[in-house]
From TrEMBL:
One of its GO terms (cellular component) is cytosol. Keywords: Transcription, Transcription antitermination, Transcription regulation, Transcription termination. InterPro entries: KOW (IPR005824), NGN (IPR047050), NGN-like_dom (IPR006645), NGN_dom_sf (IPR036735), NusG-like (IPR043425), Rib_uL2_dom2 (IPR014722), Transcrpt_antiterm_NusG (IPR001062), Translation_prot_SH3-like_sf (IPR008991). Belongs to the NusG family. Participates in transcription elongation, termination and antitermination. It holds the Pfam family NusG. This is Transcription termination/antitermination protein NusG. Residues 141-168 form the KOW domain. One of its GO terms (biological process) is DNA-templated transcription termination. It comes from Candidatus Roizmanbacteria bacterium GW2011_GWA2_35_19. CDD domains: KOW_NusG, NGN_Bact_1. SMART domains: KOW, NGN. Residues 23-131 form the NusG-like N-terminal domain.
């Protein structure tokens, strides 16, 4: 996702609190996974070309910024919170339903039976708070019990086993055999690599 797309998403999040027709509700649509951005753009274009701006107001792909450790380097990236799903605020009637349902890539509305079920404002607020959290989350490929090699610091070249992960802080606790004893050592994700 480029900077322009991120700025557009932030603008949508800010607009969430703006007043829209009280009849408008939030719905969740299911789409083909990995086509979220393409479907969002197609849907926004169809809303304009078919003149239903007074029925469909917001199309949001919930994403958040995370820090990923790849090849020993930290990089910021965006992660879809709900891959395969898009939030849409709209007044549900036959016309608006048809516009959304016939957009390429949309597989359907989430709901009970054939009727789309709106989600509550509280749920939308919780999702938006989660998406806009300040602290980026680290994402790693390590798992508890996995054998790793320490690449930096005083224990460089030691082998150990992952005992615990702290993805919020980007730390991993590794059990290292020192003097024939298992000793826990807390390290940064960048300081270890898979065997």
């Amino acid at each position: 996702m480029n900077q322009q797309q991120i700025a557009e998403e932030q603008k949508v999040v800010e607009n969430i609190t703006k007043t829209v027709d009280p009849a408008a509700k939030w719905y969740v649509i299911h789409i083909q996974t990995s086509y979220e951005q393409r479907v969002k753009q197609a849907l926004e274009q169809r809303v304009k070309s078919l003149g239903v701006e007074d029925k469909i107001f917001d199309v949001v792909i919930p994403t958040r910024e995370i820090v990923v450790v790849k090849k020993g380097k930290k990089t910021k990236t965006t992660e879809k919170v709900f891959p395969g799903y898009i939030l849409i605020r709209m007044i549900l009637n036959d016309d608006s339903w048809l516009v959304v349902r016939t957009t390429e890539g949309v597989t359907g509305f989430v709901g009970a039976g054939l009727k789309p079920t709106p989600i509550s404002e509280r749920e939308v607020d919780a999702i938006m708070k989660f998406v806009t959290q300040e602290q980026p989350k680290f994402k790693t490929k390590f798992s508890v019990g996995e054998a790793v090699k320490i690449t930096e610091g005083p224990f460089a070249d030691f082998l150990g086993t992952v005992e615990a992960l702290d993805e919020q802080r980007g730390k991993v606790k590794v059990l290292v055999s020192i003097f024939d004893r298992e000793t826990p050592v807390e390290l940064d994700f960048l300081q270890v690599t898979k065997l």
